[in-house]
Amino acid sequence: MTKQFHDRSLSADALDQIFREARSYNGWLAKPVSDEQVHAIYELMKMGPTSANMQPARIVWVKSEEAKEKLASLAMEGNREKILTAPVTAIIGYDIDFHDELPWLFPHTDAKSWFEGDQEGRKQGAFRNSSLQGAYLMLAARALGLDCGPMSGFDNAAVDEAFFGDEPKHKSNFICSIGYGDPKSIFERSPRPDFDRFNRIA
Amino acid sequence: MTKQFHDRSLSADALDQIFREARSYNGWLAKPVSDEQVHAIYELMKMGPTSANMQPARIVWVKSEEAKEKLASLAMEGNREKILTAPVTAIIGYDIDFHDELPWLFPHTDAKSWFEGDQEGRKQGAFRNSSLQGAYLMLAARALGLDCGPMSGFDNAAVDEAFFGDEPKHKSNFICSIGYGDPKSIFERSPRPDFDRFNRIA
C-alpha cells in the first residue's frame, strides 16, 4: 500500500528550501560534493514521473578537472568559470532510442511498439521527459541541502561529441552545476508573475 | 540575504511525499480542489528556475464540467475518464513569443534581443522550460498534499485551438490532473534504473 499525504503540506522551511528561498547560483563555496551525494540525488530524481516510465535522461556528472576543462571549453564564455569552479556539473542528456529499454522499464504492456518508426515523436518525448527529469534533479539536489546553477549556453553538438561520442543516439539537453552556492554570487531575484498574468481557470 | 540550507536534508517524510511514495494516479477521490489550492501551486512553481527567468508556461486550469468535457473529447480514449473525474486538469502550455515579456521578467539586461529573429531557438527554449515548469507544478502540488496524474496522450493542435485559440503563439505541452488520488487506481510501481545504468561520473 502506497503512503498518501492528503492535505499535508511540507513545512514552511522545506518549501523555502526547495522553492521559495532557493536560488540559481553563479559561484560556489570551496566545498566538494561526494559521489555518494551524486548517487543520492539520482535515487530521488528517478522516482519522479515520466511518460510510460521512459526515463530518457542519460547523465554525465562532470567532476574531474580534465572533464570540467573540456566542458568549460565548449560553453559560452560567461559559463566557463562557473563550470570550472563548481564541484560537479551534470550534463543532462537524453536517449532518442529510449524505447529500447521499455520492455523492462514498463513491463506490463508492449510500450516499445508505440514508439517504433516514430523518431520525431521519440525526440519530442525524450526532450520533454528529460527536461522533467532535469527539474527533478534540481529539486532533489535542493532537498538534500545542495544548490544548483542550470545553464543552456553551450555548444550542444560539441558536448554530444565529447561526452556522448560512443552513444550517437544520446543528445545533451541542458547542464546544471551543483554544489554549495556562494551567497556573494547572486543578485536580486528576478520578478515572478502574478497568477492572472499567465494562468486562467476554465 | 537569501536563506541557505547547506547540508540540511528534508525529512524522510517530506522526501517520501514529493518523490519516493508519490505516484501518478489514474483515478480520483470525490473531493474538490479549490481555486485557492490552484493559486498556491502556482505561487510555489513560479519560484523554480527558468532560463533568463523566461517563465514560458501558460496554464489553463480546467475545472468546469464544460471545459472538462471539451478537453476529454480531445484526449486519447484511455485518458478521457481520468480528465472527467479529476477535480482539475492543468493544460501546461508555452508561449513561443515569451521573449516579449523579458523586459520586465529579466530587467537587468536586454534579454529580449537574444531571442529576436530566432523562432527555432525560442520554440526549443519554451518547450524545455515549460517542461521544467510542469515538473515544478507536479512537485509543488505534491508538496501541498495533492496528487498528480500527468498525460501526453491528447490532440495538441485541437487543444491549442480549443483552449489557446485567441493566442496563436501559445502551444500545449502536456496536461496533468490534480486531486486526491484514489489508491485503488494504481498498480505496482514500474522499476527504476540503478545509477550505473544511465549515469556516468567523469
What does this structure look like?
The structure is a homodimer of 202-residue chains. The first copy, chain A, is an alpha+beta fold and 202 residues long. Chain A has one domain: NADH Oxidase (3-Layer(aba) Sandwich). Helices cover 41% and strands 16% of the residues of chain A. The first copy, chain A, has 9 helices and 5 strands. Chain A has helices spanning 12-20, 35-45, 65-73, 77-85, 102-105, 112-115, 119-143, 156-163, 195-198, and strands at 57-62, 88-95, 147-151, 170-179, 199-201. Chain A has a 4-stranded antiparallel sheet with strand order 1-2-4-3. The longest helix of chain A has 25 residues, at 119-143. Chain A is globular and about 50 Å long. The first copy, chain A, starts with 11 loop residues before the first helix and ends with a strand. The model of chain A has no long low-confidence stretch (mean pLDDT 97). At the A-B interface, α1, α2, β1, α7 and β3 of A face α1, α2, β1, α7 and β3 of B. β5 of chain A pairs parallel with β1 of chain B, so a sheet runs across the interface. Chains A, B: GO terms for molecular function: 3-hydroxypropionate dehydrogenase (NADP+) activity. Chains A, B: Its EC number is 1.-.-.-.
Topology:
Two copies of one chain form a homodimer.
Chain A (H helix, E strand, L loop, with lengths): L11 H9 L14 H11 L11 E6 L2 H9 L3 H9 L2 E8 L6 H4 L6 H4 L3 H25 L3 E5 L4 H8 L6 E10 L15 H4 E3 L1
Antiparallel strand pairs in A: 1-2, 2-4, 3-4
